[in-house]
């Protein structure tokens, strides 16, 4: 479904060159919930943003559903983006539009007729459990509700892939859990491929089938969640596991 | 009170109002695309073009540097070309619009810059074109701030019309100079200033109210 091949990305700053991605190779299958975990600065955000070319990689290729994203010219890239949904840490909803208007937005961009938009918006708001909030503005919603709108917006135009850029990092644990449940539910119901990045082990544990671990721009470990958790090979993953065991230990003591 | 006072004021105010409305509309027509272009051609934005950005920035700065009275004199030939005369309210609207446009462009630039980058990025990720981002994201999201900016421009233009009145544009400014100052008609001087004060208050009040109304929808809590 998604093949990433020798992807490289450098940032040139006044203080020198910074390698954000170094020879990244990944294979993501259709229907996977694929997690990418790493500390901040590991390059995971750059990687996910390369998938729809919000960031331009310097070299390497990305193929999604048989289409080489890295070779598309502007117009074709826009068309391809309409089939790649994305959700964000800070939701990025339009404050001047109602919930309904926000979900309709990608459909307007895709040139849907008005009547079909209304129908689709209703359908998708029902899926994320926000039918009763259709007429509300984002400012009137809680964080979890805002992310549900974000998800509805990302799903409206029947995407093949959903990219999640730290979508639960700004939410409390309960809300995080309910958003992850919704994503898992959508993955099951629609067979949608989900690629998510996070710095939280609990997110990987709760919904991912496969995980890649990033450190300083490189994939240091990759595999099925079960396998990586029971027999980690990278220092980064061991550190993550130790840390999360420690936290659980504290939790038990409280 | 002279019996000529009321009709004189009515005519004067009518001319002022005409100049303000005409110049504001023209300044928006010229200034809005300019302000939008300056924003979207800036580094990291949807139509990044450092060279065009620098050219537009310089154009705005240069036109804003001219004192208004010099601008009128310089643009006399343009007024004559477009309107056929250099006298009267319509002719004066030419330099008024051209002086107000870069000022308005800067105000619009500031408003549009306030729109969260994340919203633009989300629209890009959905496959929006630069034009769609301007029409469906930047302008609607900045609307209440844009209304306040236009309000500010209307008031500035009102001030400019008085200056234009001193050299043949008509309007209340012209009345104040020709009658109030040159013929010692204190009643005219007092009345024109009073009308301008009330007018400016009214414009600001309406602008604030409209901006609040736009904002209320977006920030009303459930």
UniProtKB/TrEMBL annotation, chain A:
<dbReference type="InterPro" id="IPR027417">
    <property type="entry name" value="P-loop_NTPase"/>
</dbReference>
<protein>
    <submittedName>
        <fullName>ATP-binding cassette domain-containing protein</fullName>
    </submittedName>
</protein>
<keyword id="KW-1003">Cell membrane</keyword>
<dbReference type="InterPro" id="IPR003593">
    <property type="entry name" value="AAA+_ATPase"/>
</dbReference>
<keyword id="KW-0547">Nucleotide-binding</keyword>
<dbReference type="InterPro" id="IPR050086">
    <property type="entry name" value="MetN_ABC_transporter-like"/>
</dbReference>
<dbReference type="InterPro" id="IPR017871">
    <property type="entry name" value="ABC_transporter-like_CS"/>
</dbReference>
<keyword id="KW-1278">Translocase</keyword>
<keyword id="KW-0029">Amino-acid transport</keyword>
<feature type="domain" description="ABC transporter">
    <location>
        <begin position="2"/>
        <end position="241"/>
    </location>
</feature>
<dbReference type="InterPro" id="IPR041701">
    <property type="entry name" value="MetN_ABC"/>
</dbReference>
<keyword id="KW-0067">ATP-binding</keyword>
<dbReference type="InterPro" id="IPR003439">
    <property type="entry name" value="ABC_transporter-like_ATP-bd"/>
</dbReference>
<dbReference type="GO" id="GO:0005524">
    <property type="term" value="F:ATP binding"/>
</dbReference>
<keyword id="KW-0813">Transport</keyword>
<keyword id="KW-0472">Membrane</keyword>
<dbReference type="Pfam" id="PF00005">
    <property type="entry name" value="ABC_tran"/>
</dbReference>
TrEMBL record, chain B:
<keyword id="KW-1133">Transmembrane helix</keyword>
<protein>
    <submittedName>
        <fullName>ABC transporter permease</fullName>
    </submittedName>
</protein>
<dbReference type="Pfam" id="PF00528">
    <property type="entry name" value="BPD_transp_1"/>
</dbReference>
<feature type="domain" description="ABC transmembrane type-1">
    <location>
        <begin position="13"/>
        <end position="207"/>
    </location>
</feature>
<keyword id="KW-1003">Cell membrane</keyword>
<keyword id="KW-0812">Transmembrane</keyword>
<keyword id="KW-0472">Membrane</keyword>
<dbReference type="InterPro" id="IPR000515">
    <property type="entry name" value="MetI-like"/>
</dbReference>
<feature type="transmembrane region" description="Helical">
    <location>
        <begin position="17"/>
        <end position="40"/>
    </location>
</feature>
<feature type="transmembrane region" description="Helical">
    <location>
        <begin position="81"/>
        <end position="104"/>
    </location>
</feature>
<comment type="similarity">
    <text>Belongs to the binding-protein-dependent transport system permease family.</text>
</comment>
<keyword id="KW-0813">Transport</keyword>
<feature type="transmembrane region" description="Helical">
    <location>
        <begin position="188"/>
        <end position="207"/>
    </location>
</feature>
<feature type="transmembrane region" description="Helical">
    <location>
        <begin position="52"/>
        <end position="75"/>
    </location>
</feature>
<dbReference type="InterPro" id="IPR035906">
    <property type="entry name" value="MetI-like_sf"/>
</dbReference>
<feature type="transmembrane region" description="Helical">
    <location>
        <begin position="145"/>
        <end position="168"/>
    </location>
</feature>
<dbReference type="InterPro" id="IPR051322">
    <property type="entry name" value="AA_ABC_Transporter_Permease"/>
</dbReference>
């Amino acid at each position: 479904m998604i093949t990433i091949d020798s992807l490289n990305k450098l940032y040139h700053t006044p203080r020198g060159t910074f390698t954000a991605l170094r020879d990244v190779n990944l294979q993501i299958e259709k229907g996977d919930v694929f997690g990418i975990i790493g500390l901040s600065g590991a390059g995971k955000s750059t990687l996910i943003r390369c998938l729809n070319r919000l960031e331009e990689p310097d070299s390497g290729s990305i193929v999604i559903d048989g289409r080489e994203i890295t070779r598309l010219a502007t117009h074709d890239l826009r068309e391809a983006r309409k089939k790649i949904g994305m959700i964000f840490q800070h939701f990025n909803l339009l404050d001047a539009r109602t919930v309904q208007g926000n979900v309709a937005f990608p459909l307007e961009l895709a040139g849907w007729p008005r009547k079909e938009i209304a129908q689709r918006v209703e359908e998708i708001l029902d899926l994320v459990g926000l039918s009763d909030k259709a007429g509300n503005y984002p400012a009137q919603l809680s964080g979890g509700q805002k992310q549900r709108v974000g998800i509805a917006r990302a799903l409206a135009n029947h995407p093949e892939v959903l990219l999640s850029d730290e979508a639960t990092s700004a939410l409390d644990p309960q809300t995080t859990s309910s958003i992850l449940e919704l994503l898992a539910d959508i993955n099951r119901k629609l067979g949608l491929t989900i690629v998510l990045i996070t710095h939280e082990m609990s997110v990987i544990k709760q919904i991912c089938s496969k995980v890649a671990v990033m450190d300083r721009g490189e994939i240091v470990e990759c595999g099925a969640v079960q396998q990586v958790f029971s027999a980690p090979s990278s220092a980064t993953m061991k550190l993550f596991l130790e840390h999360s065991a420690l936290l659980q230990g504290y939790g038990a003591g409280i | 009170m002279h019996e000529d006072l009321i009709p004189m004021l009515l005519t004067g105010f009518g001319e002022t109002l005409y100049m303000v409305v005409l110049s504001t509309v023209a300044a928006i027509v010229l200034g809005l695309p300019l302000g939008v272009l300056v924003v979207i051609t800036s580094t990291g934005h949807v139509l990044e073009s450092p060279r065009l950005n620098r050219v537009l920035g310089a154009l705005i700065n240069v036109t804003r540097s001219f004192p208004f009275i010099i601008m009128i004199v310089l643009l006399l030939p343009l007024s004559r070309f477009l309107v056929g005369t250099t006298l009267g309210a319509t002719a004066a609207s030419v330099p008024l619009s051209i002086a107000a446009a870069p000022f308005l462009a800067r105000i619009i630039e500031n408003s549009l810059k306030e729109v969260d980058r994340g919203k633009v990025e989300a629209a890009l990720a959905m496959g929006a074109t630069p034009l769609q981002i301007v029409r469906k994201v930047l302008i609607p999201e900045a609307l209440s701030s844009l209304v306040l900016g236009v309000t500010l421009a209307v008031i500035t233009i009102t001030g400019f019309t008085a200056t234009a009145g001193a050299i043949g544009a008509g309007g209340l400014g012209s009345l104040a100079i020709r009658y109030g100052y040159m013929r010692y008609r204190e009643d005219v001087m007092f009345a024109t200033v009073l009308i301008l004060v009330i007018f400016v208050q009214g414009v600001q009040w309406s602008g604030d109210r409209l901006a609040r109304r736009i904002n209320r929808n977006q920030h009303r809590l459930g």
